[in-house]
Queue: 2 jobs
Job 1
Amino acid sequence: MHRQNVLADTVRRTRQHHAIEHATIHMLSARLPRRAFSGYSDPRGFTLYGEATEEEVRQAVDDALRFLAAGETELAIHPNCGTNLLAAGVSATLAAKLGAGLMRGALERFVVSLVFVLIALVASRPLGFRLQRYTTLAEVGDRAVAEIRPLGAGQASVYRVVFK
């Protein structure tokens, strides 16, 4: 039973950090619209990639926590999330396999697979957003920043955000 609690807590924290990561990227993107940001979440926090100062990152994380805690749960969902890419990749792969299995000739297999893949890609966008409801958790009231520190990584800015 103890292992289940540890695993459940680890998953919960990772989902919370994923939500805070997305909300932080929303904040930074609104303030710095010509810059690209990405991140990677884990049970201790998240790593943020993108051109921003430490102060800009700190303010965005603080605002993300505040807005999520105030009920702005839509900030936990992001259109460029890896979950969306995964949904698109799996959907397209399955569609291509299905399309290829339905026809005998090479040209027919290609055309049917292409049509199925295009349909799958269109359908995968809402699927990815729906899946993010499971990979993020916007209930972040128990999360508090322990530290935000810059990491050296060439020309791009990289920050590690760790929670208590």
Job 2
Amino acid sequence: MPSLKIILFDDDFRSHLQPLSTTRPVADFRVGIFTIREKWEKWLQAGSSTSTADHLEKFQWKFSPDPSLQNIWINSRVLPSPELVVEILALKQKEAIVKGETVIALNNGNSTDRIRIAAKDHLDENVSVRRTDSPCIIIHRLHDIFSHNGKAILQDIELMRGMHSEKISSTNRVIGTHAVLAGKNVNAECCIFNTTNGPIFIGENAEIMEGSLLRGPLAIGNNVVIKMGTRIYGDTTIGNSCKVGGEISNSVFFGNSNKAHEGFIGNSVIGEWCNLGADTNCSNLKNNYGNISVYNYAISGLEDTGMQFHGLIMGDHSRCGINTMFNTGTVVGVCSNVFGGGFPQKFIPDFSWGGMEGFTDYEPEKSFESIARMRARRKMELTAGEKEMLREVFRSTASLRKKQH
């Protein structure tokens, strides 16, 4: 096949993936070791562009197909598998792959036209459709991120087959037959790595402090700090530059977020630049062991997930105070600040300030002050584009706050 340019597109399911899709294309969700974008770029050995929501393209992510290359459109919600990659590489111009009701990929040739793809019946009549039964992970709801995370870690480990692994210190104890793969400059002493159920990946410059107990499948990103005595169960990803402690189970931290103290987070997804105060806990199981309902932005109400275990979903730039208790299946929007005693409501809209006793609007300019201080600790800045994008999120979510506050 000629040289490729990948166009990772968000279809009409992106609204079901808010608040995490509010501030990023779905392609930049982290599932397993890598983001979905990184996976496709590695598998296809090609650069990528993005077709996503207008407010994201306007301020950060640019749509830029290449007329000199074959532009392969790939659904951002789909994770690559070896079988699927073979089918995509075999696509001819104006051929598409569909699985069930989901458009997986389309070869749009040298065309730089934008395609708004919602479902298979929105494909141009000139497109030839192939149906596929190739196995692949498709993200339909946010809980699919943590539900499939263990499998995604294993797939990413296969993608990295042959990578050089640094040795970890002999003061550590490794149990099990799966690998512990460590990048450069990993600092880990007097820890227990249990690989009985899967491998453990540790990124470059990560520090795992003494007394930590870690179980695979587990992915620890670059520059992560695991505090002393941390307990992390399998099917968990701690994204780049996070700092975590306490107890974590089957959860995904996208990156740059902190849960540095005691407390439990399970069956959860935490966005970027979040901070969980000391002894923050989330419930992930109802007292009656029933199905858990979670707020869905797309339907403006609670949706039965059919799941028995579901913890916290937290959007970017949100934080909570010490001893915060989140009920089962709580969703916290972007740029919210939660504090106080008791259990706050199960849905906390974007740009909310408060707790169980009530919420008020958290004005963007005020939130930017906290974000800037958090970024400064890592020698990073909040850009003008990010500020304008967040202001637009504030405007677009006003009705949610009016209804919930």
